[in-house]
């Protein structure tokens, strides 16, 4: 399988992912009269002299990103920056960066003039394999992760895997978390395919990485096109995120998103095994061949307060009843969502995993 393009159907307007081996596509956008490039500061520092050299410095806004900056304050900073430059309703905004850049600038693009033309160039493994499609923009509010947001897809996405070479190791492994999740959700065949390519993927071999990225996007596409506004089936993409989001906020985002998702999947699988929804041999097979290889976080040196995690799980915006919600992978690689997880079950899974 090798795709050059992937078309996404959206009720908000269809959009396209183009896979490219270079950044020559940027040239035509530099010639637009009304264009602004918002570039992750670290991406700018790593690529300004090479793949981004074509950009006209005066059209570039450099954006400092971290999880604490995924807020309305940063959105307002960008409104100010953009409004100081003679913006127009017909302007084009091109964002270049990872999932945080996407979330902040996508929110800006969706709200400025009630929506401007927006193009996204993802530069991290996570953004290329997962977040770039699905039309969500998200901001954190106080301690609530991704509480605020809109549905607003870019009109065009360009994926150039060369950007990934400069990602630091932990952020790279964060992207592997979402890739692992999507391949597991894809079923036994895609799981086996990732296992076969695992060594090459871990070594950032471009061919296998591109295969894993494209397969991940195809699996995610099937979920989002059938439930774009996340009222049913799309919820399953939150596999690993019920515990994962809670671990992120309980550690003040010390654990990168995709790595929290890996631990979240391990914990969800442990609950599923305990409930006899997942056979022990499949549980162990998945841990040994997918989840342990893509876990880079040093869990022995990460302080986790279990009660904080459980409180955070209770605040999950997807919670529906008085119990906690949990998405689980079950035998046959079928996804299920249960709304009756007890705090004791969650605690038992945490103690079993972190061993305290
Ligand atoms: N909107 C969605 O649908 C969606 C889906 C999944 C995740 N997310 C969000 O994505 C965020 C995580 O995004 P991420 O993992 O892409 O990372 P990121 O945007 O947090 O970037 C991680 C770090 O890598 C740097 N960086 C980015 N690209 C680089 C490159 N090519 N070379 C060197 N450094 C680079 C950044 O400056 C940052 O320091 C989380 O906030 C998560 O909630 C959003
Ligand atoms: Zn995620």
Describe the structure.
- The protein has 356 residues and is an alpha/beta fold.
- The chain is built from 13 helices and 11 strands.
- It has helices spanning 26-30, 41-47, 72-83, 99-111, 125-131, 169-186, 188-202, 206-226, 241-250, 257-274, 280-291, 306-314, 343-354; strands spanning 5-8, 15-19, 35-40, 60-63, 92-97, 117-122, 136-141, 144-151, 156-159, 324-330, 334-341.
- Strand 10 and strand 11 (334-341) form a beta hairpin.
- Helix 6 runs antiparallel to helix 7 (188-202) and helix 10 (257-274) packs across helix 13 (343-354).
- The mean pLDDT is 94.
- Bound molecules: nicotinamide-adenine-dinucleotide and zinc ion.
- Nicotinamide-adenine-dinucleotide binds at residues 40, 42-43, 46, 65, 67, 70, 97-103, 123-124, 126-127, 130-131, 134, 136-138, 146, 163, 166-167, 171, 174-175, 257.
Q: Any idea what the shape is?
A: globular
Largest sheet: 7 strands, mixed
Which kinds of small molecule does this entry bind, naming each only once?
nicotinamide-adenine-dinucleotide, zinc ion
Strand order of the largest sheet: 1-2-9-6-5-3-4
Helical coverage, percent range: 40-55%
The sequence of SSEs as H and E is EEHEHEHEHEHEEEHHHHHHHEEH
Tell me the total number of β-strands.
Answer: 11
């Amino acid at each position: 399988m090798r795709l050059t393009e992937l078309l996404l159907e959206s009720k908000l307007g269809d959009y396209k992912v183009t896979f490219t081996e270079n950044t020559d596509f940027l040239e035509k956008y530099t010639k637009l009269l009304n264009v602004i490039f918002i570039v992750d500061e670290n991406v700018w520092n790593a690529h300004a002299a090479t793949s981004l050299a074509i950009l006209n410095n005066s059209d570039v806004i450099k954006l400092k990103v971290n999880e604490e900056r995924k807020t309305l304050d940063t959105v307002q900073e960008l409104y100010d920056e953009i409004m100081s430059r003679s913006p127009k309703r017909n302007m084009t905004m091109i964002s270049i960066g990872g999932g945080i850049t996407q979330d902040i600038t996508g929110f800006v693009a969706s709200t400025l003039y009630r929506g401007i033309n927006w193009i996204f160039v993802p530069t991290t493994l996570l953004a290329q394999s997962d977040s770039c499609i699905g039309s969500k923009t998200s901001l954190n509010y106080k301690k609530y992760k991704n509480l605020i947001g809109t549905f607003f897809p870019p009109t065009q996405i360009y994926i150039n895997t060369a950007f990934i070479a400069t990602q630091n190791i932990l952020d790279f492994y964060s992207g592997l978390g979402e890739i692992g999740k999507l391949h597991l959700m894809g079923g036994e065949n895609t799981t086996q395919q990732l296992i076969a390519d695992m060594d090459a993927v871990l070594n950032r071999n471009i061919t296998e990485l591109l295969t894993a990225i494209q397969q991940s996007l195809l699996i995610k596409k099937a979920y989002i096109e059938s439930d774009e506004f996340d009222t049913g089936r799309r919820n399953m993409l939150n596999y690993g995120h019920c515990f994962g989001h809670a671990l992120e906020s309980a550690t003040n985002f010390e654990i990168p998103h995709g790595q929290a998702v890996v631990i979240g999947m391990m914990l969800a699988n442990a609950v599923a095994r305990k409930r006899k929804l997942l056979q022990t041999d499949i549980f162990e097979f998945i841990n040994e061949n997918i989840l342990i290889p893509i876990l880079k976080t040093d869990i022995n040196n990460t302080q986790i307060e279990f009660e904080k995690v459980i409180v955070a799980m209770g605040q999950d915006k997807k919670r529906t009843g008085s119990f906690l919600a949990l998405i689980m992978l079950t035998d046959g690689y079928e996804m299920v969502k249960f709304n009756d997880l007890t705090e004791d079950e969650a605690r038992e899974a945490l103690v079993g995993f972190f061993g305290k």
